[in-house]
Amino acid sequence: MAELMRYRSSDEDSGRWHDFRFRPGDVVISTRSKSGTTWMQMICALLIFQRPELPASLPHLSPWLDWLVIPQDEVYARLAQQSHRRFIKTHTPLDGVPIDPAVSYIVVARHPLDMAVSLYHQSGNIDRERLRQLTGEPPPDGPPSPRPPLRQWLVDWIERDSDPRQVLDSLPGVMWHLRDAWQRRGEPNVRLVHYDDLLADLAGEMRRIAAWLGIEVPGDRWPELVEAATFARMRQRADELTPNSAGVLRDNRAFFRQGRSRGGSELLSAAELAHYHRLTAELAPADLLAWLHRPAGTEPR
Question: Would 270 be classed as within a structural domain?
């Protein structure tokens, strides 16, 4: 097996994958932050349990394996006790996760500018003091600097030249994650799903994912399963679905903010948007960018 990349931040460590024991049929959901992680977890839950009502909260059913807030032994034990088909969350790119031919890997992609806008709003919803308590991070030296307005923050985010292996939620980090997945798209156990396709044709995407996972769903159950996976319905069930068992988020419903597409592009001038496209052309191949930035409905090639 190829040596795995190690990704670490103040609250995540991909090294927690190294000793994890897979089962045949496991599903790994690998995304960048605010790119449809919880949405894909919910879709998998609905397909596996085949009813809108879940037997437990979504974070309990689908643990975030490399999140340092929950002790590794606790996460491993929870997964070992599960008898249903397991589906596990991670923000680690696939080059940091063991690849097992008996395991399915789903990578969800979202337009990076839309992901960044959601990340901005999500950051304001995090209780940083609570997160530091849970991860053991020392307090900051002084008061935090005030955040700039969204548009200026987005321009700065585009410009920020970060090492993608150190700052995965940067523009270089997003492209690093997706470029790795794109190179694996021909493998039978790796599937790329576009966030915009979930918006445009949720029922069709759910059927395609079910077929790829080898899950058969009775025809009369599809309407209620699709309805349960809509953004509006998930927002109504925020307390059950949001990854907030440790009390890190200030408002569960704010986690499901809008779920729209192209909001990031609308904030930029034509010159700023052209600059964004020039930068991404240096970070990813043209065919990946054409798929990532294209209208919904185009399958990856």
Answer: yes
Whether 256 is covered by a domain: the verdict is yes
- Specify the number of domains making up the chain: 1
Q: Is residue 176 part of a domain?
A: yes
Q: What is the pLDDT of residues 173-211, one digit of tens each?
A: 999 999 999 999 999 999 999 999 999 999 999 999 999
User: At a CB cut-off of 8 Å and minimum separation 6, what does 16 contact?
Assistant: 65, 66, 72, 75
Q: What is the pLDDT of residues 135-173, one digit of tens each?
A: 777 877 777 778 899 999 999 999 999 999 899 999 999
SS3 state at 282 = helix
Among residues 60, 91, 121, 177, the one annotated as catalytic is: 91
pTM: 0.91
Using DSSP's 3-state secondary structure scheme, residue 270 falls into: helix
Are 209 and 47 in contact by the 8 Å Cβ rule? The answer is: yes
Catalytic (active site) residue 91:
yes
Residues 6 or more apart whose CB falls under 8 angstroms from that of 82 comprise 61
- Which residues on adjacent β-strands are paired with residue 104? 27
SS3 90: strand
> Which residues pair with residue 192 across a beta bridge?
107
